[in-house]
Structures are given as structure tokens and as C-alpha cells.
Amino acid sequence: MKEKRGRLEIIYDILVAIQNKNGSIKPTHLLYKSNLSYQRMNIYVDELIKKGFISKDFDDNNKFFILTDSGYSFLAEFKKIKEFTDSFGL
Amino acid sequence: MWNIGFLFALGLVRQQFINHLLRQVLEVIFTKFKNKDLSHLVGEHNMGFVFGPSWFYGIDTIIEFVAVLITLFIAIYSFRIYKLIHDRKYLYFMLAFLLVSASYSIRTLTDWLVYTSLLGRIPNVMAAVSKVATVSTLHTIGYLAYVFMTLAGFMILVAIFLKIQDIRIVSLLFIFIIILTALSQSILVAFHITLLLMLLYIVAHLYMNYSRTRSVSSFLVLYSMACLLAAQVFFVVLTFYSSYFVTGQLLQLAGFLLLLINMILVLKK
């Protein structure tokens, strides 16, 4: 059985999902890609907006989530964080 | 009357003999001082002032300082992760390594104080006694702080690795540490045995982690903690064989250096 994703992996999956869509994704697509419930996804999205990793954008009444420069930096840093976490078994 | 005179003379001779013995003991201690050997000195709580051979004085302080820097480095990196993802686990991990770093800082300062105070020029026996008395109090406070902070730091690590989230259990473990620090007759032996037991749990966790990930970094962390565990074994038997101190310290240094290598590899990714 696959292990439950930690907070770090969930944040990473959300950001990668946006990155794979050229840095901009619709909420419904993100919901599908992140494999989270609607409520849980909103909690993470709000937090990522607060941290400045993503931002909200509106285009023809459609909502989008945009990956910011900090978000791209975090994705670059993620490998290091993951290695650190795995080395200690955190 | 004759009997009283005889007893008085006998008492006088005895007193002179005791004084002679005391003078000889003090002379032996002072000669050792002059030869830069502090191994005979024992402070409160049965704590020796120094543990290794005289050629190792100062080298142990450098090893402890290396431990301060490496553990501080890990604490800072962990805090950086916490600031990025706000996961409390990394905050506790930072706190654990910060406590270990602080404990080694205190020990470094205490040992440095002992070496600089007692290995300097001491003119006579009375000056030596006065210096030992002054250093003894600071040494005891420093070592008690070192013992408590190290145990608290490793206890937090055990709580993180064993996923103990119930605050009541964590507080109970803290109480045990306080009791151990405050009431132990032979504080350092009790300290090293407790740390050894904690490290057993940590190494078991890291072994399972390595079995799962099979990565170089998890291997390095496993061996670093195994080195610290082996070092504790040597520190426990130190009471009987003082030469084991050097082996223990070198194992400890190897453990911290493996942690540093792991951090370098992590940051190179």
C-alpha cells in the first residue's frame, strides 16, 4: 500500500501540477491533479497564496492559480528539502 | 597526671602525622598541577574536571566546538524548511538540534574555563586550592546545563522519530530528565546511560528508514548516530578506564562529521 503523503509532498504536488500547466491552472484541474478533497485543497491553496508561492488571477470570469517566482524557487529547493527529510526519516 | 601527659603527647604526635600526610597529599596534587595533569580532580556530583590524558586537553574542546557548529547548521536548515512549509515537525527538529548545539556550547565554554584557569601559572598550593574551589562551582553549573540540554534535545528527537504527539507523554519524559539531572549521584554515568538508551531508539528508527530508502544520505545519518551511540558506550566505561575518553571523543567527532557530510550532500542536490 502506498504511504500517506506528508504536508511537504502535498505542497510539492500542487506546485508541480501548476508548473506542468505552464505555470497557470484552473481550480478544477488542480483539484483533480492534487488528489485532494475540495476543502483540503482550499486550505493548501490559501496557505500557498499567503506564502506567495502562488497567486490568484481572473481571465474572462475564469479563476486561475499562477505559480509565482517564489513558487518556482521552492520547487528548485524541494529536492534538497526532500533529501534532508528522507535522510532523517522525518 | 603522667597518663594525661602521655595521652597529650600521643595526640600531638598523631596530629603531626595527619598534618604530614595532608601536606604530602597536597604536594602530590600540586606537583600534578605543575605537570599540567588534572586527572585527579573531582568536583561535585562525582564529576571529574577533565577526563582524558593531558595531551588531549584542548583537543576535546575543539571537537565539542565542531559539534556546536554542525548541530547549529542542521538547526538553521530545519528552521528554514519550517519557514517555507510551516510544518511543526521541522520546528521541533530545529529545537532538538538547537538544544544539542547550546549544550555543546556550554560544555565547550566550561572546559575552556577549566583548562585556562587550572593550567595557567599557579604559584603555590593555597592558590591551587582557591582556584579549584572557584572553578568547581562554575564547572558543576556548566555540566548540569550540558547534561539537561543534551538529554532534552535527544528526547525531542526520540519523540519526533517515534511520532509521540501526546504532550502528556512528552512532559513525563521531561520530568524524568529533570529528576535524573537533579538527583543522580554519579551524574555523568547516569547521563551517558540515558543518552545511550535514547540513541538506541534513534538508531533503530534510522535503520528502518535506511532499509526503506536505501539512499546514501539515510546511510550517513544512520552511521552518524551509530557512532554517537558507540561513543556513549566508551563514555559509560570511562569511570573505570580513563583512556577510553579519547576513543569516545573521536567516535563522537566521526558521528558529527558524518552529519556534516550528509548536509553537504543534501545542499548539493
Question: What this model shows, in words?
Answer:
- The complex is a heterodimer of chains A (90) and B (269).
- The longest helix of chain A has 20 residues, at 69-88.
- Chain A has 90 residues and is α+β, with helices and mostly antiparallel strands.
- In chain A, α1 (7-20) packs antiparallel against α4.
- Chain A is globular and about 45 Å long.
- The model of chain A has no long low-confidence stretch (mean pLDDT 87).
- Chain A has helices at 7-20, 27-34, 38-51, 69-88, and strands at 24-25, 54-59, 62-67.
- By secondary structure, chain B is mainly α.
Summarize the structure.
The complex is a heterodimer of chains A (90) and B (269). Chain A is an alpha+beta fold. Chain A is built from four helices and three strands.
Tally of helical runs of chain A: 4
User: What integer value in Å does the Rg of chain B equal?
Assistant: 23 Å
The number of distinct helices of chain B, counting runs of at least 4 residues, comes to 8
The most extensive contact between chains is: A-B, 19 and 29 residues
Percent of residues in helices of chain A comes to: 55-70%
Could you tell me the radius of gyration of chain A in angstroms? 13 Å
- Cα(first) to Cα(last) distance of chain B is 95 Å
Give the strand tally of chain B: 0
Number of strands of chain A: 3
User: Which secondary-structure class do the elements of chain B indicate?
Assistant: mainly alpha
Strand content of chain B is: under 5%
Low-confidence parts of chain B lasting 5 or more residues at pLDDT below 50? none
Descriptive key words:
heterodimer, A: 90 residues, alpha+beta, three-stranded antiparallel sheet, B: 269 residues, mainly alpha
